[in-house]
Amino acid sequence: MIRRAWFAPFMFVLLFRPDDFLHAQSKEGSPFDQSKFVPDIAFILDISGVARDIPDQQYTALTIPGFNFPFLNQPSTSGLNVKRGMNFNYGELSLYSVVDPYFDLFAVLDLAPESAGLAEAYFTTRKLPYGFQIKGGKFLSSFGRINEQHEHFWDFANRPLIATALFGEEGLNETGVQVRWVAPTSFFLMAGAEALNGLNDQSFGTMGFREPGGSIAVKPVQGPNLYTGIIRASFDIEEASFLLGVSNALGTTRNDQGFSGGKGNAVDATTDIVGGDLTVKYSLDAIRFVSLQGEFMARAMSGTEYSNDTVPTGGYRLG
Questions:
Q1: Cis bond leading into 224, ω under 30°?
Q2: Which end of the chain is more exposed for a tag (fewer CB within 10 A), N or C?
Q3: pLDDT in tens, 130-164
């Protein structure tokens, strides 16, 4: 049991527009002026100090029975603030550019002392009729409230345990396409759908597997393997703002953790995750406010878990 813990996150944000410098150095109307093609750039640094009364190894090994696959050996804790003392959580480089009157491009790079990777890279449309917008590429799914937000947008230090247990430390980050429609109403009302590859192995996955020397053979799943639906609404009542939403994610779970090698387990199942979220923000004055945020998630899995020691003949359900 964690009895005492404190977090002291520090965040530094550097915003600049390279075209401002290029405009100052170039002649107006020059045919060689490339400033319009230079993206907006932002760099965010997240570091923290942590005190905790249990060892780091014990903290990072915490799991939630019934949500974590026992054989995956994946913790339920977030990748933020994992060590006692000072933590360099991440550096984030964000790029944004208007391509033309019809498309925008976004990219986010995660930077760490030992690694660097492309967190997101996608386009969005600008002028589709009737309130529609299309997003395509690699992006954080709009399932729920916090999944599509990067950590520095949160009002808390760690990803909620249920979100980490269902989607892992990186959240539901997939390659695919999203379609949104904003209704022509007096309040904000949006409906959206996504078709994603479904490679997230915490709840989904596409890996096939075969029993060595046996008759069990499950083919891999071809993408798209995961489909989501989202509805969101927002409205104001006097000084209070309400944002609420419902989400659903449905896909196939295919996961091989050593079963094909003769020592391990594998899962073949259908997974359905539902979620609901509510955020209430009450403004005290022009700069002060009180906010309450909550999110509910539930997962149902129906299928078969295979083991090299025991091959079950029936199915299982895992919440």
A1: yes
A2: N
A3: 999 999 999 999 999 999 998 888 888 788 888 88
